[in-house]
């Protein structure tokens, strides 16, 4: 591939609605610190919703800005619901270290948080992405 050609990628994006948990700055032993968040994504019937948890590295600039804005609300124990777009989803296994599942294998779903389309704090509108609004 010549220098004039741009690289091409296959994108796998996942979009949904979910509750935010644990917005935090991660400082690895080696490498650059990054913002991380856990999303409890809603799925299934509205009458009996189920949750799928995603551990996300906050990659998008817009998503980083929104996460920093809602972080005080989360720290104040308020519920934050967002519309989101994830990328590069993958699973990683781990061993439970304590609790009733100690010693058992678990699976963590990991992804990159690219964009937040909207956010509500305790049911009240907080943010709406005007750039990507329909």
Polypeptide structure, described:
The protein is mainly beta and 134 residues long. The chain contains one helix and six strands. It starts with 12 loop residues before the first strand and ends in a 6-residue tail after the last strand. The relative contact order is 0.22. The mean pLDDT is 91.
List the helices and strands and how they pair.
Layout: E1 13-26, E2 34-43, E3 50-58, H1 61-75, E4 80-95, E5 105-121, E6 124-128
Parallel strand pairs: 3-5
Antiparallel strand pairs: 1-2, 1-4, 2-3, 4-5, 5-6
Shape: globular
- Supply Rg: 17 Å
Number of helices: 1
Q: Would you tell me the overall average pLDDT?
A: 91
Q: How many distinct beta strands? A: 6
Question: Structural class, please?
Answer: mainly beta
Kindly report the spatial arrangement of strands forming the biggest sheet.
1-2-3-5-4
Low-pLDDT ranges? none
The biggest beta sheet, please? 5 strands, mixed, barrel
Strand content: over 45%
Can you give the helix content as a percent range? 10-25%
Helix and strand pattern: EEEHEEE
Q: Alpha-carbon distance between the termini?
A: 37 Å
Offer a concise description of the structure.
The chain is mostly beta strands. 11% of the residues lie in helices and 53% in strands.
Keywords:
mainly beta; globular; 1 helix; five-stranded mixed beta barrel; 134 residues
């Amino acid at each position: 591939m010549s220098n004039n050609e741009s690289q091409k990628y296959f994108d796998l994006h996942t979009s949904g609605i979910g509750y935010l948990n644990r917005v935090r700055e991660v400082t690895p032993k080696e490498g650059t610190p990054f913002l991380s968040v856990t999303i409890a994504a809603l799925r299934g019937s509205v009458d009996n919703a189920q949750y799928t948890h995603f551990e996300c590295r906050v990659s998008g600039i817009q998503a980083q800005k929104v996460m920093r804005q809602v972080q005080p609300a989360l720290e104040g124990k308020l519920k934050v619901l967002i519309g989101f777009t994830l990328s590069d989803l993958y699973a990683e296994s781990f061993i439970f270290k304590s609790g009733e599942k100690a010693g058992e294998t678990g699976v963590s779903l990991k992804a990159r948080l690219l964009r937040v389309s909207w956010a509500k704090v305790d049911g009240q509108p907080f943010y709406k992405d005007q750039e990507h609004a329909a």
